[in-house]
Every structure is written in C-alpha cells, then in structure tokens.
Write a structure and sequence with these properties.
alpha+beta; 3-stranded antiparallel beta sheet; two-stranded antiparallel sheet; 7 strands; 42% helix; 27% strand; rod-shaped
C-alpha cells in the first residue's frame, strides 16, 4: 500500500469545509423554495379573501395592511419577512404586490451571513395579483 498514514485525515480536513458549504447552500435553497410555495398560496388566498369586497370606506392601503398582517402572522420565522403594497391602476384595477424576504439560515436555526469565506446573500420573491375594485369578486 502506497498511502501514508494520516493521508485520509488530511483529505477529510481539506474536503469537509467544501462539503459543509455545499450542504448549507442546498438546505437554504430548498428552504427558500418551500417558503416561496407557501407564500404564493397564502398571498393569493388573503388577497382573494379581503380585496374583492372591501368594507365601507376601506381603501386599498388598509387592505394591503391587513394582508401583510395575516401573512406576517403566518410566516412568523426569524429568517423570513413579508411586505405588501397596493397601487391603483386604470379603470379601478388595484395591483397588490407581496414580497417575501428570506435571509439564509444555519439549517433553520439562526442567521447565516457566510461560512468559510463564502457569503450567503438574502433572497426575495414577489407575487402580484390584480383586483377590480368596482366588481366584487373579480380577480385578474
């Protein structure tokens, strides 16, 4: 056998940080995609529930605030934040835009800015839904 004693230990020490960084990236990407899927579904449900039939005197900004409050409650995690805005368009159409902000995490616990010289930037995901405020129940 031509291998010297300790060669496998040295190879492990060299390869382990790379494997750890790859695992962190994979876990964060899968966690981000999971949060995006839940956010898309929840955002559409909340806008469809609150926006097409506003209460008397309720504007689109109040509805956006309610949607944001519901989504913030639903996505109550340290590494996720939510923002919702509304903008009026022509013909009484209102566009609701929700943004999910994701900051990388250490396997779901704590924040992670970088590891072994590799930085992990935050991600964001946006979803939009257009509602006709003059025809209750119409989503575009």
């Amino acid at each position: 056998m031509d291998c010297e004693k300790g060669q496998m230990t040295i190879e492990f020490v060299v390869v382990f940080p790379v494997l750890l960084v790859v695992a962190l990236i994979a876990v964060n990407v899968l966690l981000f995609l999971s949060e995006c899927a839940g956010f898309d579904r929840s955002f559409r449900q909340e806008v469809a529930r609150l926006a097409p039939s506003p209460g008397y005197g309720q504007g689109s900004s109040e509805i956006a605030g309610k949607v944001e409050s519901e989504l913030t409650h639903r996505f109550d995690r340290d590494y996720v934040s939510v923002s919702v805005s509304a903008s009026a368009g022509p013909g009484g159409l209102v566009t609701y835009r929700g943004i999910l902000h994701f900051s990388p995490t250490l396997f779901g616990h704590g924040s992670l800015k970088g590891a072994f010289g590799v930085s992990f930037p935050g991600f964001s995901h946006a979803q939009e839904l257009v509602v006709d405020q003059y025809r209750p129940g119409v989503l575009l």
